[in-house]
């Protein structure tokens, strides 16, 4: 795969990811309106907490849109390695917003606990909320899939957050059903508190995953193994490959290593081996950036990736 092909694919992926981010904001606004209507119909603090989290979804969607737009900007003099890490900042901010939302929900749950009240039109309100939950479930699965396909931390974090919202919404609806059937109005604020705690847990997970990316986390086990297999297979003519290092920066993957060749090998022949390895790696890992340091055989360490 040549550089032109990689750039074209990246541009196409960028347009798709940005379009998905725009849809996310629109859907988040729609779901917010539906959930707030469910709260107005019932007066339930648990449904209010569900609607409050949707406000976070709207803000997070806007931040994700900004982040993916920045991340697809081409490399420049000030950012020679590109802007792909911008998406991690989006995920971190989203995690912080989730934590703030959970604290606000806990506040409302406490007040409702002190003065519990029965819901108005509970069945209608829960049905309205159910529609919003179904929309969220569908879109969360789309975001998670697109986030993985395009190695987009922003879309993946947004999808996981919305999926957590779906889980809590289902729990809220089930609990409110029990409250309506039994008359235990105290369940309403207790459910709201549980929603807040679950949101807090998800927020921490989002922040932790994003911080790992900002700290130049290496490829995971299967991908790292596959990179080494490709290098081993395509390095024919070299004597040894060692000091293989990888790191992830958003959708970009950086791979670097030292390749030992016979001292008598010409620069041109060594370059052919490098091109063969780069083409093979980039053919399997889109947006991979490969850096190879060629060394003479005196630098061999007799360790590292075997050359087949």
UniProtKB/TrEMBL annotation:
Entry superkingdom: Bacteria
Please tell me whether the keyword Ribosomal protein is annotated for this protein: no
- Keywords associated with the record: Cell membrane, Membrane, Transmembrane, Transmembrane helix, Transport
- Where does this chain mainly localize? membrane
Q: Start and end of every Cation efflux protein cytoplasmic domain?
A: 222-297
Q: Which InterPro entries match?
A: Cation_efflux, Cation_efflux_CTD, Cation_efflux_CTD_sf, Cation_efflux_TM, Cation_efflux_TMD_sf, CDF_Transporter
Task: State which residue ranges cross the membrane.
Answer: 21-42, 54-74, 86-106, 126-144
Which parts of the chain are coiled coil? none
Q: Which GO terms describe its cellular component?
A: plasma membrane
> How the protein sits in the membrane?
Multi-pass membrane protein
Q: Where in the cell is it found?
A: Cell membrane
Q: Name one Pfam family in it.
A: ZT_dimer
One example of a Gene Ontology biological process annotation: intracellular zinc ion homeostasis
Domain (Cation efflux protein transmembrane): residue spans on this chain:
23-215
What Gene3D superfamilies does the entry give? Cation efflux protein transmembrane domain, Cation efflux protein, cytoplasmic domain
Enumerate the GO terms in the molecular function aspect.
cadmium ion transmembrane transporter activity; ferrous iron transmembrane transporter activity; zinc efflux antiporter activity
- NCBIfam families in the record: CDF
Give the family, as the similarity comment puts it.
Answer: Belongs to the cation diffusion facilitator (CDF) transporter (TC 2.A.4) family.
Q: Which PANTHER family match?
A: MITOCHONDRIAL METAL TRANSPORTER 1-RELATED (PTHR43840)
State what protein this is by name. Protein p34
Q: Which organism is it from?
A: Aureimonas ureilytica
């Amino acid at each position: 795969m040549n550089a032109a092909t990689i750039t074209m694919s990246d541009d196409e992926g960028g347009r798709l990811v940005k379009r998905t981010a725009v849809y996310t904001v629109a859907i988040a606004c729609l779901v917010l309106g539906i959930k707030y209507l469910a709260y107005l119909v019932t007066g339930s603090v648990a449904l209010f907490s569900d609607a409050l989290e949707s406000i976070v979804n709207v803000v997070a969607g806007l931040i994700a849109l900004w982040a993916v737009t920045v991340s697809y900007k081409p490399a420049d003099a000030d950012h020679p390695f590109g802007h792909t890490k911008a998406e991690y900042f989006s995920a971190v901010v989203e995690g912080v917003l989730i934590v703030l939302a959970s604290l606000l929900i806990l506040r409302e749950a406490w007040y409702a606990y002190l003065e519990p009240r029965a819901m108005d039109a509970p069945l209608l309100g829960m049905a309205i909320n159910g529609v919003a939950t179904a929309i969220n479930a569908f879109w969360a699965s789309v975001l998670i899939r697109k986030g993985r396909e395009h190695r987009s931390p922003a879309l993946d974090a947004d999808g996981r957050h919305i999926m957590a919202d779906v889980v809590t919404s289902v729990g809220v609806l089930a609990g409110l059903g029990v409250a309506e059937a039994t008359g235990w109005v105290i369940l309403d604020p207790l459910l709201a508190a549980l929603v807040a705690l679950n949101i807090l847990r998800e927020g921490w997970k989002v922040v932790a995953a994003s911080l790992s990316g900002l700290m130049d986390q290496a490829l995971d086990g299967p991908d790292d193994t596959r990179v080494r297999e490709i290098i081993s297979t395509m390095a024919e003519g070299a004597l040894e490959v060692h000091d293989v290092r990888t790191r992830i920066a958003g959708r970009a993957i950086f791979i670097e290593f030292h390749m030992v060749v016979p001292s008598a090998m010409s620069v041109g022949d060594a370059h052919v081996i490098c091109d063969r390895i780069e083409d093979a790696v980039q053919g399997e890992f889109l947006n991979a950036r490969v850096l190879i340091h060629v060394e003479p055989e005196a630098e061999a360490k007799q360790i590292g990736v075997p050359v087949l």
